[in-house]
Design goal:
The protein is α+β, with helices and mostly antiparallel strands. It has four helices and five strands, in the order E-E-E-H-E-H-H-H-E. Strands 1, 2, 3, 4 and 5 form a five-stranded antiparallel β-sheet that branches.
């Protein structure tokens, strides 16, 4: 019995990925008391299609020495960016803290399928509170 496949054997389909354009990366750092003392780090990613968020909780004993240095490693991702590039390459070996890459990647993956209504509403409601309550704010653009 013979069968014909949709893709001829030996030929693989090339996946075309559309890069997202990252215009701005913002980090908001908040103190957290419960369930364990530490910090809530929120990353707002501004792209050509809107905004998206990532969130990370860091224990007080695992706090980076410098929040600006912690976030500034993401500066190289401003501009056209393909998530697949980040997945295929190893994070900068001079950066010892890989949590910032995981935070960035979670926000970038969500930006591929934005929900404009939710994001716009979320941004206007949360932004003022974030600036008032954050103990540190880093903006990369």
């Amino acid at each position: 019995m013979t069968m014909q496949t949709a893709t001829p054997l030996g030929k693989t389909e090339k996946k075309t990925t559309v890069p997202i354009t990252i215009k701005r990366i913002e980090l908001f750092v908040f103190p957290v008391i419960a369930p364990e003392p530490g910090f809530r780090v929120c990353l707002r990613l501004t792209t050509g299609v809107g905004h998206d968020w990532g969130e990370l909780f860091i224990k007080k004993c695992e706090k980076p020495k410098d929040w600006v240095r912690f976030g500034s490693v993401l500066l190289r991702f401003i501009g056209p960016f393909q998530i697949e590039d980040m997945l295929s390459e190893n994070p900068d070996i001079s950066v010892k803290d890989e949590r910032i890459y995981a935070l960035f990647l979670s926000a970038a993956q969500h930006s591929k399928c934005p929900s404009y209504l939710e994001m716009d509403h979320h941004d206007h409601v949360e932004e003022g509170l974030f600036f008032n309550q954050a103990i540190s704010y880093i903006s990369l653009f």
